[in-house]
UniProtKB/TrEMBL annotation:
Database matches in PROSITE patterns: COX3
Naturally occurring in which organism (per UniProt): Dendronalium phyllosphericum CENA369
Gene3D superfamilies: Cytochrome c oxidase, subunit III, four-helix bundle (1.20.120.80)
Keywords noted in UniProt: Cell membrane, Membrane, Transmembrane, Transmembrane helix
Protein name, per record: Heme-copper oxidase subunit III
High-level lineage: Bacteria, Bacillati, Cyanobacteriota, Cyanophyceae, Nostocales
Gene Ontology MF term list: cytochrome-c oxidase activity
Domain Heme-copper oxidase subunit III family profile: 57-233
Pfam families: COX3
Gene Ontology biological process: aerobic electron transport chain
Membrane spanning residue stretches: 57-80, 100-119, 131-151, 171-192, 212-231
Compartment annotation: Cell membrane
Assigned GO CC terms: plasma membrane
Primary location group: membrane
């Protein structure tokens, strides 16, 4: 009996078998999902296998909670716009303008998703130099967007206290800008970590989570851009 227990422990430590400790067996229906979706779900269950999958699943749940906050802000904005359509803009206030700078910064931010994803793929293949350059370009694109947000704030003809248009605009763009800033900081940390010898040999969860966070930030901006700049008063 003791010998049998000893053999089971050795097999489990080697990773050849795995006992699913979770109450819900995800693996059966997980395999039916597309490959791009499987990366966000844990595989195998248990406590010592597939740490990357479990980490991505937990981070995805976190982003879902963040999306609920943005959703509540967006619904409040829509409700206020529809109920105060006549007096949405105070006299002398033109509101946020769809300027050339706004369009360019939006294109830059959305295009950065097509840069950071190849960077993550390069890291998975062990191509550190390509990862660093693409990651650095993404940082520059995110920083460019933040700088343009600050410039726009400075040139607007309304402030935070200018009625509903001011409070909602600065709340939405400010909260989103905070997430962009967080994403840039995370990217800088992941870039610095790439210069630590053998840092990513044991896994790249941090870079994968940062990439997912950046995609989330870009998707949110599509909705905010449509509400704030394309919905005319």
């Amino acid at each position: 009996m003791q010998r049998r227990i000893f053999q089971l422990r050795n097999i489990q430590q080697s990773g050849s078998i795995h006992i699913d400790e979770s109450p819900i067996r995800f693996e059966r229906w997980r395999r039916r999902l597309p490959n791009w979706l499987q990366r966000f779900l844990p595989s195998g269950g248990g406590s010592h296998e597939d740490h990357h999958g479990k980490g991505m699943f937990g981070f995805t749940v976190f982003l879902l909670s963040e999306s609920l906050i943005f959703l509540s802000f967006i619904l409040i904005y829509i409700a206020l716009r529809t109920t105060h359509s006549k007096d949405w803009l105070p006299p002398g206030v033109s509101g946020p303008e769809l300027s050339r700078a706004v369009i360019i910064s939006t294109v830059v931010l959305l295009s950065s998703s097509f840069v950071i994803q190849p960077a993550e793929n390069a890291l998975k293949r062990g191509r550190l130099n390509k990862f660093r350059w693409l990651w650095l370009i993404t940082i520059a694109m995110g920083t460019y967007f933040l700088i343009n947000v600050l410039i726009e704030w400075k040139n607007l003809d309304f402030k935070l206290t200018t009625g509903l248009v001011g409070s909602t605009f600065y709340l939405l763009t400010g909260f989103h800008g905070l997430h962009v800033l967080t994403g840039v900081i995370l990217q800088i940390i992941m870039l610095v970590r790439s210069f630590i010898p053998s840092n990513y040999n044991k896994g790249h969860f941090g870079a994968s989570a940062t990439t997912l966070f950046w995609h989330f930030v870009d998707v949110i901006w599509v909705f905010l851009f449509s509400l704030l700049y394309l919905w005319k008063a």
